[in-house]
Specification:
Elements: E1 2-6, H1 13-28, E2 36-41, E3 46-47, E4 53-54, E5 58-59, E6 68-71, H2 77-80, H3 84-90, E7 98-102, H4 105-111, E8 119-120, H5 127-130, E9 136-137, E10 142-145, E11 148-151, H6 156-169, H7 171-181
Parallel strand pairs: 1-2, 1-6, 2-5, 6-7, 7-11, 8-9
Antiparallel strand pairs: 3-4, 10-11
Helix pairs in contact: 1-6, 6-7
Length: 185
């Protein structure tokens, strides 16, 4: 399985790191030894709104070779949902790939057209914005509708990571990873 973590300026790093930490343990613990990922962006370096930088491992190109794209949120999503080049880039993901978001990353999935006729969630302060992009806004912490998986506000990133561990490697893997993280949520 090959994942693309989507990076952009003014990202919320916890949205990314919460899911990344959980899912990367699937490889480290031997549950998905062929798991691969790239940190993908259109520019480099990327920084959150406080200035903490990260260098993407892949800049530009297409997202068509990935089995899943994972789109974090952050204040940057408010402008990127209207950024033509960024949205066109997201649309290069395979139609069969999972489209996964945390927090306001769902606004980017929506702007790319992936949420049409789907149920989804986002940060609780952006439910009204999300209504323009999906069939139904759901207030659950994690919402799965076909190959679309969306998670609520920033702290739901850990829950999403464990949800994906369970989905891709089973309950035993998710339980072990939860225990090793000492996550009691």
């Amino acid at each position: 399985m090959k994942l693309a973590y989507i990076l952009f300026d003014n990202i919320t790093w916890l949205d990314l790191i919460g899911v990344y930490d959980s899912v990367s343990r699937l490889k480290g613990r031997g549950y998905l030894p062929d798991l691969e990922w790239d940190m993908c962006a259109l520019s480099s370096p990327i920084a959150d709104n406080y200035g903490l930088p990260m260098l993407p491992t892949k800049t530009g190109g297409t997202l068509e070779s990935y089995d899943a794209i994972i789109v974090p949120g952050g204040i940057g999503t408010r402008t990127l949902q209207h950024d033509h080049d960024f949205i066109v880039w997201l649309r290069t993901a395979s139609k069969h790939a999972y489209k996964i978001s945390i927090c306001t990353g769902s606004l980017l999935l929506g702007a790319a057209g992936f949420l049409k006729d789907k149920k989804a969630t986002t940060h609780f302060l952006e439910y009204e914005t999300l209504k323009d992009y999906c069939r139904e806004v759901v207030t659950d912490r994690i919402v799965e509708d076909g190959n679309i998986i969306t998670a609520g506000a920033v702290a739901s990133s850990l829950d999403l990571g464990l949800f994906l561990c369970n989905k891709w490697a089973g309950a035993e893997a998710a339980a072990e990873i939860r225990k090793r993280m000492d996550y009691r949520g």
